[in-house]
Structure formats: structure tokens, C-alpha cells
Design goal:
about 450 residues, alpha+beta, Butyryl-CoA Dehydrogenase, subunit A, domain 2, Butyryl-CoA Dehydrogenase, subunit A, domain 3, 2 domains, six-stranded mixed sheet, four-stranded mixed sheet, 12 strands
């Protein structure tokens, strides 16, 4: 296993990563990207304390619902890069099992990539969403053929790929890019049915970063996002050579969607786990600020918080159902129930904005206008803020001000905007969850139940 310091040193490998018009040569030392790298390093050190026989917990393939629940907790605690790495590994294992009969030639490279991830303790990010160009057109009808990642040259020992993958969280912080088709492909689109594991520092890989990391000089005003923000990568594959042993699918259009569907399952499970904790956090802030405002007993406030509690409970119940009803899948692995995973992820995403609206309505405008922590410390303004931001004995102005800062940071600032969008888009948009939920719901049984109730059987 790598230590945190070894991980930070591994980032100095010649990778081409950019931020706001400049190439970044020292990721750990960068003022905005560096804290995220150090957060990943902390995750490495924490995972070392959870090692089993000297191997990272990320090398564990759950065999039953209990082991799956444990791994969800471990990955959640270890941080974003551990999550995307474990999701990548389980995506490979799931896809490998699903194509074992139809394309057995890919089992060896898939298993080799999984073992490489375990043995080298690397971090992997999933690259699935293409630039797509005109969304109404398939790959072959785009004005620019590079709108979807595709093979542009075939050589004896590998292929050359070109295109871009968008919205890749932590791409610059990992070691490998699991690049897979974004959707099903059709006959004639063989060059677009390409999946591969590509090192981040491969010639031709360029990663352009954005981040919600705070630009404020005093991160105390950002108690949630100020402790490390994962950058988003715009990954360009500019004629990147991929050796044969790193190719996981090449030309089998009928199997192009298998990788995307496998990733969707594990990505949505992680999203559902995060949503369950996030919903409880919204409830906690709503109750705390209602009490601090002196409105905890008001009927309309209690009604909103009750609705938030029900939302949080339903999300948690879907997570528990997805884990408790885990099914035995490829390679003997336990994988989450797809019906409950997708229904829970959809419910959490579709109702998130309403829960945030309730929180904002309960809290009030000071979410945006509460003075800074530095103002609290100023000898002239501090006492005034404490006086006028306080509400009653036991609720002083500093406590209430800090609550407002946390709520703003979580829901109404740069990180809050990131949360609002990723709750919907991460793991596929709402439509994707509706499709999978309908696919796995027993509609025939529901129809038979209705016919019986109507006396029509």
C-alpha cells in the first residue's frame, strides 16, 4: 500500500494538467488543487489503518450483503478518490462477468487491470461522458467525428484514440483513466466501441481543471468546502496510444453499453450513500437554525422539517433495501439491488431542490448576509455582531453566525451549486434512473395484482 506521502510524490510523473490558463507542475503545492491532493493523501493513510493482510480494503470484492454494506462505509469514509477507484474496480469486475460468454478474450486484460489496481494501490477515475457535439445526432453523423472518443489508428501493438471526456471528478488526482463508451453503439460505430485503462501521464492526455474550492483567504467562512474540494477534469485524449494489454473492448458494438450500465450501478450506489448522509445533514441544519431563530415550535416550521425527515428516511430506506437485497453477480461478487438503488437515487435527486428550499425558508436571509468570522474577531464589530445576531439566552451571535456560514457553504455558494447539479447528473441524469427502475420493477406482477383486485383474472 502507498503512504500518503508516496501518493503525493507519485503525482510528479509528467502529467499534463491545467488550471485557469496555466499548466500545473506541482499539484500538491497548488493553492487550490493542493488541498484536494492532500485530502486524498489523508485517505491513503486512513486506509492503511484498515489494511487486511497488508492489502488495501479497496482490494476487497464483497461476497454478501454484509460485506457490501461494510465496503460502502469504508469507501465513504476514505473519500472521493477511494470511492471512484472502488467504483472503477467493481465496474471492471461486473462488466467482465457480463461479457465473459460473448467476449472472453477481454477477461485476461480486465483481470490484469484489476490486479494492477490492487497491487499498485493506484487511484482510478471513470471517463464516460463524451463531448457529444449535437445531442440529437449519433456519433457517425456529427460534424466533428471527435465528438465521441474513438479509434483513429490501429497498429500491431495497440490503437490510437482521440476525443474528450467531461465531468471527470478528480481526474488530475488519479493515476489511471478508465475510459469507456458513454452509451450503446450501433453497427458502423465500431471505432466508438472502445474501452481502455489509460495512464494519466500518457502522451496526449491533457486535463483541464475547474473547482468549487473557496478562493477566500479565510476558509473559516467555508466550514464544509474549505477542508478540501475535488477538482473536475475536462479530459482530452489527443491521439493517445493504448497498448493491446490495456484494451478492454474494441469494436463489439453490442457490448458497448455493458460498461456504462455496470458503472451506473456502482456510481449510483455511491451517490445514494452520499445522499442518505446529505439528507440527514439538511435535517440537522434545519432543526438547529429553527431553534436558534426561536421558531422551532412553529407549526409551519415543524411541517417543513417533518417533510425533510420523511425524505431523509426514504433515502436511507432505499439504501438499506439496496444493500439488504444484494444479489450474487459476476465473479461471485455481491452487487446492490438495481431497483432500490435507482429508485433511491432518483428520489434523492428529484427532491433535493425542495429540501434545500425548505432549509432556506426556515433559516432566512442571513444565510447570505451573515458577517464573516474575521468580523466577529474585530474588537469594534465583534461585540456588535454577537449582540445583534444573538436571539436569546443560550443562543449567542457567534453560534448563530457560524450556523449560517455552514448552511450557505453547503447549499448556497460554489459548493452548494456543485451539489445541486451533481445530485441530478452524477451517475446519469434522472431519465437514466427512470429507465433502469422500470426495467427492474416487476410490472407484470403489478398488473396481475390489479386484475385480481378488479375481479378480472
Amino acid at each position: 500500500m502507498l503512504t500518503g506521502e508516496q501518493y503525493l510524490a507519485s503525482l510528479d510523473d509528467g502529467r499534463a494538467t491545467y488550471f485557469e490558463g496555466e499548466r500545473v507542475h506541482d499539484l500538491p503545492g497548488h493553492p487550490l488543487l493542493g488541498p484536494a491532493a492532500r485530502t486524498v493523501a489523508g485517505g491513503y493513510d486512513w486506509l492503511a489503518t484498515q489494511a487486511v493482510d497488508g492489502r488495501s480494503p479497496l482490494a476487497t470484492v464483497p461476497a454478501n450483503p454484509e460485506e457490501l454494506r461494510h465496503m460502502v462505509d469504508v469507501v465513504h469514509h476514505a473519500g472521493m478518490m477511494a470511492h471512484v477507484t472502488y467504483t472503477s474496480i467493481m465496474t471492471l469486475a461486473t462488466a467482465g462477468g457480463r461479457i465473459a460468454d460473448t467476449a472472453p478474450q477481454y477477461l485476461e486484460p480486465i483481470n490484469a487491470c484489476i490486479e494492477h489496481a490492487h497491487a499498485s494501490d493506484v487511484r482510478i477515475t471513470q471517463c464516460i461522458t463524451d463531448a457529444k457535439g449535437d445531442r440529437s445526432r449519433p456519433p457517425l453523423k456529427q460534424d466533428d467525428p471527435d465528438a465521441y472518443v474513438h479509434v483513429v489508428d490501429r497498429q500491431r501493438d495497440g490503437v490510437v484514440v482521440r476525443g474528450a471526456k467531461l465531468h471527470i471528478t478528480g481526474a488530475s488526482l488519479g493515476h489511471e483513466l478508465l475510459t469507456i463508451p458513454t452509451k450503446a453503439m450501433k453497427a458502423g460505430e465500431e471505432d466508438y466501441a472502445i474501452a481502455a485503462l489509460i495512464p494519466v501521464n500518457s502522451p496526449g492526455v491533457k486535463i483541464i481543471n475547474t473547482t468549487y474550492a473557496t478562493r477566500h483567504h479565510d476558509v473559516r467562512d467555508f466550514p464544509i468546502s474549505g477542508n478540501g474540494a475535488a477538482p473536475e477534469g475536462f479530459v482530452v485524449l489527443d491521439d493517445v496510444f493504448v497498448p493491446n494489454e490495456r484494451i478492454l473492448l474494441d469494436g463489439e458494438v453490442a457490448l458497448a453499453a455493458v460498461f456504462a450500465h455496470s458503472l451506473g450501478l456502482w456510481e449510483r450506489l455511491g451517490g445514494l450513500s452520499g445522499m442518505a448522509d446529505g439528507a440527514d445533514l439538511l435535517v440537522g441544519f434545519a432543526q438547529l437554525i429553527a431553534e436558534a431563530n426561536g421558531l422551532g415550535g412553529e407549526a409551519h416550521i415543524k411541517e417543513k422539517i417533518s417533510e425533510m425527515i420523511i425524505h431523509a428516511t426514504v433515502i436511507r430506506a432505499c439504501l438499506e433495501a439496496a444493500l439488504s437485497n444484494a444479489e450474487s453477480g459476476p465473479l461471485g461478487a455481491a452487487f446492490p439491488n438495481e431497483l432500490y438503488t435507482n429508485a433511491g437515487k432518483y428520489t434523492g435527486a428529484a427532491n433535493y431542490h425542495l429540501m434545500v428550499r425548505h432549509l432556506h425558508d426556515i433559516a432566512g436571509g442571513a444565510i447570505l448576509t451573515a458577517p464573516s468570522i474575521a468580523d466577529l474577531e474585530h474588537p469594534e464589530t465583534g461585540p456588535l455582531i454577537r449582540k445583534y445576531m444573538g436571539t436569546r439566552e443560550g443562543v449567542d451571535g457567534e453560534y448563530r453566525t457560524r450556523l449560517f456560514h455552514a448552511i450557505r457553504d453547503l447549499t448556497a455558494d460554489a459548493y452548494g451549486g456543485w451539489q445541486a447539479v451533481t445530485n441530478i447528473q452524477a451517475g446519469g441524469g434522472l431519465y437514466a434512473q427512470r429507465i433502469v427502475t422500470r426495467k427492474h420493477y416487476d410490472l407484470d406482477a403489478a398488473k396481475q395484482h390489479a386484475l385480481a383486485a378488479a375481479g378480472l383474472t
